[in-house]
Specification:
The chain is α+β, with helices and mostly antiparallel strands and about 450 residues long. The protein folds into two domains: about 260 residues, no CATH class; about 150 residues, no CATH class. It is built from eleven helices and 16 strands. A six-stranded antiparallel sheet has the order 11-12-13-14-16-15. It has a four-stranded mixed sheet with strand order 7-2-1-10. It is globular and about 70 Å long. The chain starts with 7 loop residues before the first strand and ends with a helix. It binds zinc ion (ZN).
Length: about 450
C-alpha cells in the first residue's frame, strides 16, 4: 500500500551550483563559481557603484527603473538583508557599515570578518559577520588560482563530497576577502586607502625568511571597481556580465546553477590563469556540479512506488559493479547530454588509479522519464572551443542513440570523446545489472518507442 505522504527517492540528482573544480596538490580541491564572486563583488561595492549597475541594466533591458528597484529589493529580502547587502561596503569609508572588517595576516592565514547578507532573517543561528580564514596556498601547485584551504562558518562552505578528495567550495564570504586582497595587491594603495587595511609588507606570503610567494590570481575577470563610463570595451563586457548575473538572480529569480552554466560559456569571464588550467593536458581545471539533493516524488500508484524502488536499487547495483568489480570510483557530479531536453546531472566514475587525462570514464544518468543509463566516454585530446560542450545531436532521444557511438565533447574536461550510451542491463559492457521486472519493462518500452535513428 502506498501512503500518500510518503516521498520516494527517484535517483535524479538536483544541482546546487556549477563551476570549476581546481585540482590542487595533495588531497584537496578548490571549487569556484562565477556567482560567488559576483555576489562578493556586490557585497564590497558602494551604493553608488551598485546604482550605476542597476541604471546600466535597466537601460540595456528597456525596463522601468522604479519597478526594477522594487523587484530587486523584494528579491534580496527584508530590510536588514538589503541593508547588509547593498549598504555595507568596503574600506575606506566614513561610517562603520563595513562589508569586510578586521582583516589580519596571522601565521599562515589571512583572516577577516565578512558581513552576512542573511543576518536579520528569523533564523536565530544567523550571525552578523562570518569569520573567514584563507590559508596560504602551497608553493608547488600547478595553478596559482585562489586559496585552496579556506574556511567560513556559513552554510554554503559546508559540503560533502564523494570521499576521494576533500573540497573547499568557495562561498561569497571567502570570495570577498580574496577579491579584497587581490585588489590591494594590484592597486598598491597605502593601507589607509585600500580595502584590507594591510600594508604591502603585511600582505606578503613568506616561504622562507627571504623568499615570498606571489599572491594567487582571481579565477574570473569581472572583479574590479570601476564605473561603466570609465571602462574600455572589454572591461565593459566584463562589468556587464557581473551586473547581469546579479540582476537576473534577484530580479528574475534565476538560481545559481542556471546562471553559472550560462556565464561559463563566455571566455571574457575566465582569467588567463584559469584558461591555462582548463587547457592543461592533465585537466587541472574541470567543470563540475555540486549536488543539492536527490529529487523525491510522492508516487501516485503502487506501480510507480515500486518503480522508484527499482531505480534506486539499480543505481546501488551499478555502483557496486563499478566499484567492486571494475575498479572505478565515483568522483563527483557532471552534466551529460548538455543542451538537450534530456540534460542530466550524472555521477561520474573514474578509474581508481586514474589521474585525469585520456581514457575511459562513465557517467550514470537518471532523470524523470529516463531510467538509469550509462554514458561511456573514451576521452581523447582537448580540441577547439573549450567553452562549448553542447551535445552534437540535441534532438535525438538518448534511447534512439543506443549502440550508435558518436563524437562529443565531455563537459567536465572538454575533451573530445567517442561516446556511447548504454543500458546498465546490457551485457558485454561488463555491467549486465539485473533489474526488477517493472523496470525491465520500462527499458523495453523506451527501446521500442525510440528506435535507432
Ligand atoms: Zn561563507
Amino acid at each position: 500500500m502506498v501512503t500518500h505522504n510518503t516521498r520516494r527517492a527517484t535517483g535524479e540528482i538536483l544541482p546546487r551550483t556549477y563551476g570549476l573544480m581546481l585540482q590542487m596538490p595533495g588531497n584537496h580541491n578548490l571549487f569556484v563559481t562565477p556567482m560567488a564572486f559576483a555576489l562578493a563583488q556586490i557585497q564590497l561595492e558602494r551604493p553608488g557603484e551598485i546604482r550605476a549597475r542597476i541604471r546600466d541594466w535597466v537601460r540595456r533591458n528597456g525596463e522601468n527603473v522604479a519597478e526594477t528597484e522594487e523587484r530587486l529589493k523584494k528579491g534580496i529580502g527584508n530590510e536588514r538583508e538589503r541593508e547588509a547587502f547593498l549598504n555595507h561596503s568596503r574600506q575606506p569609508k566614513s561610517d562603520d557599515r563595513l562589508a569586510l572588517k578586521g582583516v589580519r595576516h596571522l601565521g599562515a592565514a589571512f583572516k577577516g570578518d565578512v558581513k552576512s547578507r542573511s543576518y536579520g532573517t528569523d533564523d536565530p543561528d544567523k550571525v552578523d559577520y562570518h569569520h573567514v580564514a584563507l590559508h596560504h596556498p602551497s608553493a608547488n601547485r600547478e595553478i596559482a588560482i585562489g586559496f585552496p584551504y579556506g574556511e567560513c562558518g556559513c552554510e554554503d562552505s559546508r559540503w560533502n563530497s564523494y570521499k576521494k578528495k576533500s573540497v573547499t567550495a568557495e562561498c561569497v564570504h571567502m570570495a570577498a576577502l580574496e577579491i579584497a586582497l587581490a585588489t590591494d595587491v594590484a592597486s598598491r594603495a597605502p593601507s589607509d586607502k585600500n580595502i584590507t587595511g594591510l600594508t604591502p609588507e603585511a600582505r606578503k606570503i613568506y616561504l622562507s625568511r627571504t623568499s615570498t610567494l606571489a599572491h594567487p590570481s582571481l579565477p574570473f575577470t569581472f572583479n574590479f571597481f570601476r564605473s561603466p563610463s570609465d571602462c574600455n570595451a572589454l572591461q565593459l563586457a566584463q562589468h556587464r556580465m557581473l551586473t547581469d548575473m546579479f540582476m537576473t538572480h534577484f530580479v528574475k529569480r534565476k538560481g545559481h546553477y542556471e546562471l553559472n552554466c550560462k556565464a561559463l560559456m563566455h571566455e571574457t569571464l575566465f582569467s588567463p590563469a584559469l584558461l591555462k588550467a582548463l587547457a592543461h593536458p592533465l585537466d587541472w581545471a574541470q567543470f563540475a556540479v555540486l549536488r543539492q539533493d536527490e529529487r523525491t516524488s510522492a508516487p501516485e500508484s503502487p506501480a510507480e512506488d515500486r518503480l522508484y524502488g527499482s531505480i534506486t536499487e539499480a543505481l546501488d547495483k551499478i555502483d557496486a559493479r563499478f566499484q567492486k568489480e571494475l575498479g572505478f570510483v565515483p568522483v563527483g557530479n557532471v552534466r551529460e547530454l548538455v543542451g538537450t531536453p534530456w540534460e542530466t546531472v550524472a555521477i561520474r566514475y573514474l578509474e581508481k588509479r586514474g589521474h585525469g587525462g585520456t581514457g575511459l570514464v562513465y557517467s550514470v544518468c537518471t532523470r524523470e522519464g529516463i531510467p538509469p543509463i550509462i554514458v561511456c566516454r573514451n576521452l581523447e585530446h582537448k580540441t577547439g572551443d573549450l567553452l562549448d560542450s553542447k551535445d552534437p545531436q540535441p534532438r535525438v532521444h538518448p534511447f534512439a542513440r543506443l549502440g550508435k557511438p558518436f563524437f562529443s565533447r565531455d563537459d567536465a574536461t572538454r575533451r573530445m570523446s567517442l561516446t556511447r550510451i548504454i543500458l546498465p542491463t546490457e551485457r558485454g559492457e561488463g555491467k549486465g545489472i539485473n533489474v526488477s521486472a517493472g523496470l525491465a519493462d520500462v527499458y523495453r518500452r523506451l527501446v521500442a518507442e525510440y528506435p535507432a535513428s
